[in-house]
TrEMBL record, chain B:
Keywords: Endoplasmic reticulum, ER-Golgi transport, Membrane, Protein transport, Receptor, Transmembrane, Transmembrane helix, Transport. Pfam families: ER_lumen_recept. This is ER lumen protein-retaining receptor. The chain crosses the membrane at residues 55-76, 96-117, 123-144, 156-174, 186-207. It is a multi-pass membrane protein. GO terms for biological process: protein retention in ER lumen; protein transport; vesicle-mediated transport. It comes from Pelagomonas calceolata. One of its GO terms (cellular component) is endoplasmic reticulum membrane.
Length: 10, 220
């Protein structure tokens, strides 16, 4: 699945 | 993980350490905005709810907990611990009432999520935190402006925080080029750009003062 920008960022 | 994102995160960590050092070394919170710290805590708590739902990496989870814990500690120091408590001057930190930052961001987040069809509370709070983070530094910038002459460590604190945001923009550029499964999020980009733009003026005076080796003084 595509990860939306910044969802996995801090 | 890429070099810009990691450098950004480290810059964020350094900024928090510098702030703690600044508080401890001067034994006062004069020149530090408690409001900014409280806004950051709201940002972290609402954004990092995914700690309970999604596991990204040990690094990611550790940093989230560290940001929440360190910011809570800083707020506790300024609000309840001596000598910070009695030296903290709330009248110098009066700009931007918390509710006037929170309410518009909450409204905007609700609207944005309705449009995007993301209706889970976690998504709405995450979007809210993206907007609120852009505003969180504003009270701190106003406190700097009030005292005009910026104490060394306080200047470094704001500098590292700004560097973190700037590096995150480079990180998004990098990711959009090199990551196959990457989806743009324009709300994040726009609020990230706004947030970084707020630091530009401070950066200019910071760099000039470092270049000439003088004190960091902001114009009236």
């Amino acid at each position: 699945a595509k990860v939306a920008a910044a969802k996995d960022e801090l | 993980m890429n070099i810009f994102r990691f450098a950004g995160d480290m810059s964020h960590v350094v900024s928090i350490l510098v702030l703690l050092l600044r508080l401890r070394s001067s034994k006062s919170a004069v020149g530090i905005s408690l409001k900014t710290q409280e806004l950051f805590l709201i940002v972290f708590v609402t954004r990092y709810l995914d700690l309970f739902t999604t596991f990204y990496s040990l690094y990611n989870s550790f940093m989230k907990v560290a940001y929440i814990a360190s910011t809570t500690y800083i707020i506790w120091m300024i609000r309840f611990q001596e000598p910070y408590k009695s030296k903290y001057d709330a009248s110098q930190d009066s700009f931007l009432h918390i509710k006037f930052a929170v309410a518009p961001c909450a409204g905007l987040a609700l609207f944005a999520c309705l449009v995007k069809g993301e209706l889970s509370p976690i998504d709405i709070l995450w979007t809210f935190s993206i907007f609120l983070e852009a505003l969180a530094i504003v009270p701190q910038l106003f406190v700097l402006q009030r005292y005009r002459e910026v104490e060394n460590l306080t200047g470094h604190y704001v500098f590292f925080l700004g560097a973190y945001r700037g590096l995150y923009i480079l990180n998004w550029v990098y990711r959009s080029y090199y990551e196959q499964f990457y989806r743009h999020n324009w709300l994040v980009y726009v609020s990230g750009a706004v947030q970084t733009a707020l630091y530009v003026d401070f950066f200019y005076y910071y760099v000039v003062s470092k270049y000439y080796g003088g004190k960091l003084t902001l114009p009236t």
